[in-house]
Amino acid sequence: MSVGPDTLTHPALVSRATVRSGDEPTYLQLTPGGQAAWTLDAAAATAFPSMREATRAAMRLPSSIKAFSLLRDMEVTLATPH
Questions:
Q1: Longest C-alpha distance within the chain, in Å?
Q2: Fewest CB within a 10 Å sphere: which of 10, 27, 49, 67?
Q3: Nearest Cα to 14, choosing from 33, 35, 1, 30?
Q4: CA 45 to CA 9: how far, in whole Å?
Q5: Which of 8, 54, 60 is nearest to 45 (CA)?
Q6: Would you say 45 and 39 are in contact if contact means Cβ atoms under 8 Å apart?
Q7: How confident is the model over 11-42, as pLDDT tens digits?
Q8: Whether the predicted pLDDT of 1 surpasses 90
Q9: What is the three-state SS of the chain?
Q10: Long-range CB contacts (< 8 A, 24+ apart) of 29-37?
Q11: How many whole angstroms from its chain centre is CA 54?
Q12: Burial of 21 (0-12, 13-18, 19+ CB in 10 A)
């Protein structure tokens, strides 16, 4: 499979591992100044254009945060009460 300009991309978020079981997931929200803030609202989190970009952002954070990327559409859907 080739990867090129026609490859579909899906918006993605950056989240971090929870410290204690039962903790709510938090998502990266970049401030206008570029600082990292964390929010409980997946819809308000910074949406990166692709999993690749979200993974790159996660890898730039301190390793103690244990950040990772995940698809935005899935996370927002799961967080919405049905």
A1: 41
A2: 49
A3: 30
A4: 18
A5: 54
A6: yes
A7: 999 999 888 888 889 999 999 998 999 999 99
A8: no
A9: CCCCCCCCCCCEEEEECCCCCCCCCEEEEECCCCCEEEECCHHHCCCECCHHHHHHHHHHCCHHHCEEEEEHHHHHHHHCCC
A10: 36/61
A11: 6
A12: exposed
Tokens of 12: 């993605």
Record the tokens describing residue 15, joined without a space.
Answer: 């989240």
In whole angstroms, give the CA distance from residue 22 to residue 82. Answer: 20
**44/78: higher pLDDT:** 44
13 is written with which tokens?
Answer: 């978020």
Locus of tokens 């401030």? 31
